[in-house]
Amino acid sequence: QSGGTATTALQWTGLLPQDRHAWLFQVEGRTRHTASHATRYQQLEAQATWLQDPVAPTQWIVRAEHTQLHWGGRKLYSSQRLGTQHQWLHARADSSCRTAAGIEVEGRAFPGTSTLNGNYHGGLLTLVCQKQDSLSLQLRTGQDQPRQAERPGGIQRQSEARVQWQFNAVGNRWQTEYSIQHQQDDTGYSPLLSRNVARRVVRQALRLETSRPLQWPALGDPQWFGTVEISRQTSNLQIFASSRSAAQTGLRWTWP
Q1: What is the phi/psi pair of residue 239, to 5°?
Q2: DSSP for the chain?
Q3: Which end of the chain is more exposed for a tag (fewer CB within 10 A), N or C?
């Protein structure tokens, strides 16, 4: 399918210091409007993070997240994730990096197709380096255990790598992100598809955004942005192969 869309997003971030500790709260709502009601969606993400001591060379981090996705007027997906990480600071005169290792558990639910529901558990490793530029790397691996034995494919073994780079150039702020995900089912997906072979899926996504502040006092000095997104999914079962590309432009406001 092809066509135009209008996307609206609203994000709130709050920081609550408590002696050496700190709480970080984030809520984001996003809605997409299309000509067809069947392809409109609304997404909500809420996150609460406890930081043991943000300025210490090492600290523990605990994070709880909730996500909801409504598609075509119906609730398609929801998840609750809880994770903990131990973080180390590697400081130098010209930059600082933080490494973290942790574990996470997540409950995933598909209200319209309950046989797809599952419980995920796994580990993650992150690296974030900041100077004028910012570079982050995230590695995640684990498995999704079905809640019902009838789920096609059974246990899903999943891994993901994600890299993000932010930098300034030609007067703009640039952000590029690339991710690759791999999923391997334990058992055959369906006797009707390729003699019941176990499904393998690889998803790749590339995102590039550029932005710059606009000196428009009458409109509250917004920020202009433009984004290009390309994604591709391949599989040994052709029914799960897909591709997507999109370009967006708009204005963004930030309030203290």
Answers
A1: -65, -20
A2: -----EEEEEEEEEEEEETTEEEEEEEEEEEEE-SSGGG-EEEEEEEEEEES-TTSSEEEEEEEEEEEEEETTEEEEEEEEEEEEEEEEEE-SS-EEEEEEEEEEEEEE-TT-GGG-EEEEEEEEEEEEESSSEEEEEEEEEEEEESSTTSTTSSEEEEEEEEEEEEEETTEEEEEEEEEEEEEEEEES-TTSGGGPEEEEEEEEEEEEEEEE---GGGT--EEEEEEEEEEEEESSGGG-EEEEEEEEEEE----
A3: C
Q: Tell me the pLDDT of the chain averaged across its residues.
A: 95
Q: Which tokens is 129 given?
A: 């380096």
The alpha carbon of 94 is separated from its chain's Cα centroid by a whole number of angstroms, namely 29
Q: Quick one: 217 exposed, middle or buried, by C-beta within 10 A (0-12, 13-18, 19+)?
A: exposed
Residue type for 63, please? Answer: R
In whole angstroms, give the CA distance from residue 97 to residue 78. 33
Residue 214, φ and ψ in degrees, nearest 5: -110, 135
Regarding pTM above 0.85, the answer is yes
- What distances in angstroms separate CA 125 from CA 4, 85, 90, 102, 136, one per listed residue? 38, 9, 15, 7, 11
